[in-house]
Specification:
Layout: E1 5-11, E2 14-19, E3 22-28, E4 33-39, E5 43-48, E6 51-55, H1 60-74, E7 79-84, H2 89-94, E8 102-107, H3 110-119, H4 121-124, E9 133-137, H5 140-146, E10 151-157, H6 171-179, E11 181-193, H7 194-208, E12 214-220, E13 230-236, H8 246-256, H9 265-270, H10 276-279
Parallel strand pairs: 7-8, 7-10, 8-9, 10-11
Antiparallel strand pairs: 1-2, 3-4, 4-5, 5-6, 11-13, 12-13
The structure holds S-adenosylmethionine.
Residues 31, 48, 53-54, 62, 83-87, 106-109, 112, 139-141, 157-160, 164-165, 168, 190 line the site of S-adenosylmethionine.
Length: 283
Amino acid sequence: MTGDWFTETLYPEWRQSLQITSILHESKTRFQDVMVFENPRFGRVLTLDGVVQTTERDEFAYHEMMAHVPILAHGDVRRVAIIGGGDGGTLEEALKHAGIERAVMIEIDGEVVEICRQYLPDIAGDAFDDPRTELIIDDGVKFMRETGEIFDVIIIDSTDPMGPSMPLFGSEFYGDCGRHLSENGIIVTQSGVTFMQGDEARNTYARMKPIFADAALYVTQVPTYGAGYMTLGWGCRSMAPRQTPAETIEKRFAAAGLQTRYYSPAIHHASFALPAYIEALKT
Ligand code: SAM
């Protein structure tokens, strides 16, 4: 960070900078460096270990697609698990579905949750206080290995594969998730900005393929996840959810009464139509 600019150093050969109008919080937790600062265009910005995690102004493009695509494809989600997701944005979107009875969020770093609740309250809204929410401060790998629960949707909203999130991108963890999915259960994962982190999506797909009847990738576009499409991994125990007819998705979307700014039934299906350079990773 030089002067009044934050520069993301995720890649050695490509950087993005955001102007800092004020720093609201800086600390080092047991797991990572945390910073929250104000930017004129993106509002409040959360970074972990120097990497942009979410911003008030463009978080919708990520959290809506992480939550509504699997939940509306499934059609009858009662129990959802979110691994990571410390800012609460994915949790908030999931809880907009009235049919959800239980939302378990397993976040390894409780300080991230506290910092986000204090400095980025609009991202989670009142999701953490929703009676359906259970927040567990623990390693998602350990939780998925030990839990006896079955979920209809599991959302892996983790940091990039480094440090504690590394095992969340592995076959063993995907296998554990598979064992805790209901019949038409779906797992979705953040799998990186593919133009810069192609291996993440390649590996996610290759590791999901042997485990799930339906392994796929879909995309969203988040301005502060710079350099192109953000790819999300999809694993499902059956083909049915992803083959849900467009008119059914439209009916479910209308019935859910969602106000969205990125997700739409049209985008739901279009997001699985990948640019050739991403499709080519599914070899
Ligand atoms: N949207 C962001 C992205 O796509 O990079 C992720 C946001 S969220 C802040 C990422 C969270 O994953 C962090 O709060 C981090 O503490 C958490 N995390 C990393 N490894 C984890 C693990 N093994 N179990 C649970 N949470 C983990």
